[in-house]
Amino acid sequence: MNQRRKKEKLISILKGYGSLMVAFSGGVDSTFLLAVAHEALGDNIAALTATSETYPEHERDAAIAFANSRGMKHLVIDSNELDIENFARNDTKRCYYCKSELFKLCRKEADKLGIAQVADGSNVDDLGDFRPGRDAAKELGVKSPLVDAGLTKDDIRELSREMRLSTHDKPAFACLSSRFPYGTTITRERLGIIKKCEDFLRELGIKQFRVRYHGKLARIEVLKNDIARLMEDELRDKVVQKFKESGFTYVSLDLEGYRLGSQNEVI
């Protein structure tokens, strides 16, 4: 099935919902879903963005700006993930606890607004990775229309480009809790360290990256074509200095480069 036919199928699925609340992070997938839902259902949609220490301000601001630009109903609600039972201890079900909280918030607000369904932005490619948040979605009756329409990440990026969505080439993003190996406790202080370091890499113009937390050691993942750039003396020295000022003792560069789900490689 070609991309445009997949979009037509998605529109048909969305129209069948009647009304929809989208769990909206402002990323590539949820932005595309929200835009198409608006096309299919008009004002019978709403978006909910949950903010916390694990969700950077620049992502929140981008989500707010997009919803405002389209005149969409958009709820921004504080969700202190570190207070969620079992979340901070960071076992392999961390994403399940987080998504359960998010989807319960979405369902609560959807009920207040008389909205029939809640949906997330999962796509077909997500089915091939370890995603305990998918279990939470199933348990709470959350729809995944991008999956049901057979849309992959590449499909979504290309269709987003055709729709002139600025997110079509936005780097993949995951909440900051994903920077910690399972079993490493997540704290506000540690999240702050990661945030400072990632903000610095962003200021350097590096688009796709992760700073993985391994105690006193930082493991930097960047795209392979950025590895050589980070090894240049002047830039390398700046990164090392900033990371050490932020709280790390050792700074390493992962020679395998950035890849999705690298923290799941130990499972």
Map the helices and strands.
Blueprint: H1 3-17, E1 20-23, H2 28-41, E2 45-51, H3 57-69, E3 74-78, H4 94-113, E4 117-119, H5 133-139, H6 145-148, H7 153-162, H8 188-203, E5 209-214, E6 217-222, H9 224-230, H10 233-246, E7 250-253
Domains, number: 2
Low-pLDDT residue intervals, each spanning 5 or more residues = none
Please describe the biggest sheet, giving its number of strands, its sense, and whether it closes into a barrel. Answer: 4 strands, parallel
Averaged pLDDT: 93
For this structure, the quaternary state is single chain
Annotated CATH architecture of the largest domain: 3-Layer(aba) Sandwich
The best one-word shape is globular
CATH superfamily of the largest domain: HUPs
Comma- or semicolon-separated keywords:
alpha/beta; Rossmann fold; GMP Synthetase, Chain A, domain 3; 2 domains; 10 helices; 45% helix; globular
Can you give a write-up of this model?
With 267 residues, the protein is an alpha/beta fold. The protein has helices at 3-17, 28-41, 57-69, 94-113, 133-139, 145-148, 153-162, 188-203, 224-230, 233-246; strands spanning 20-23, 45-51, 74-78, 117-119, 209-214, 217-222, 250-253. The protein has 10 helices and 7 strands. The strands form 2 sheets. It has a 4-stranded parallel sheet, with helices on both faces. A 3-stranded mixed sheet has the order 5-6-7. The two termini are 34 Å apart.
